[in-house]
Amino acid sequence: MKIGILTYHKAQNYGAVLQTYASQEVLKQLGHDVEVVDYYAPAIAKSYRFFPPLAHEPFVRKLKVIVLFLLTLYKEGNRRRRRTVFHQFVTSKLQLSKQRYTQPFETELHYDMYYIGSDQVWNYDKISGFDSVYWGNFKVRDDARKMAYAASLSTSGFASECEDFCRKALDNFSSVSVREKQLVDLLQPLTTKKLTCVLDPTLLLTAADYTKIAVAPSSKRFVLAYALNGRSEVLREAHAMAKKLGCEVIELCGIVSWRNSSERREYASPEEFLGYFMTAEYVVTSSFHGTAFSLIFHRPFTAILSHNGGDNRLTSLLSDVQLLNRIKGTHFDMDTCDWLRVDELLDQRKQESLQFITNALS
Description:
Low-confidence stretches: none
Largest sheet: 7 strands, parallel
Distance between the termini: 10 Å
Mean pLDDT: 88
CATH topology of the largest domain: Rossmann fold
């Protein structure tokens, strides 16, 4: 079957490009002919402009962005390096469509199945709303279908107008799965289709699969800090753990910042990202994918909640593997993880997720 993947593959974000890679490899392992549709979503393109658009932002936000932009001008070299390593990964590790798209498709494409997801492709953008492409609002051949795999969105601020849009858009799909249990509860009342909660595609590959492309760092023993939110708390916990273990701290960065520190890795490639998780003594993270790769590589970890409405995906995953006690706070347990049990629980969810894919493609 010819399958076209539609997802956030152009984001300079480790989770985004690695979940794309995982979806591609899983579908190839199942024997399908797979391409990543080279659709550059307007919201993604906008976020990586040299100077971000501010027309719809409040004054205080505009001022903050301008100040931070000026503070980081001297690190434009790091920004270029970061763009380069992500571009190299996308062009060398992903099978991209020959044509690139920057707007909804006006003509029917040649795929038998459109695989939409994973990641937060269903998020609502405060300026442009939902991206209709990721909700399947485009023409296809009469015999072609669309499926959603592990699609995700932030549930904070989900309003009645969102419900109306989603109710209609869910009819575009022959099969629908989401990444978080909370989304099943939110969206199931809007459709007669059965919604299934599945694993993020990164968790469908094994550590051995990732080791093939990982680039291990030359660093000494280290505690890895990876924060998309709650950076100060993540670093505080990482330094405390590093002191206990007699290690240094390495911080993998989601953005290029005005901050300067020998700990920061602002332009590590996705392959190096995997290498850091593969070899860390310990991981402290507030990221969903940081937690996922800690599980994949059997790295002891502390998960930090950001309390900004986006924690559902992290807690949903840790609930699946009975490791809610790895969240910093009440009932936190520093004991060694029972990785055999974790693998058993993940494998059960993996088989359920692969069965969803198989059924959707049949």
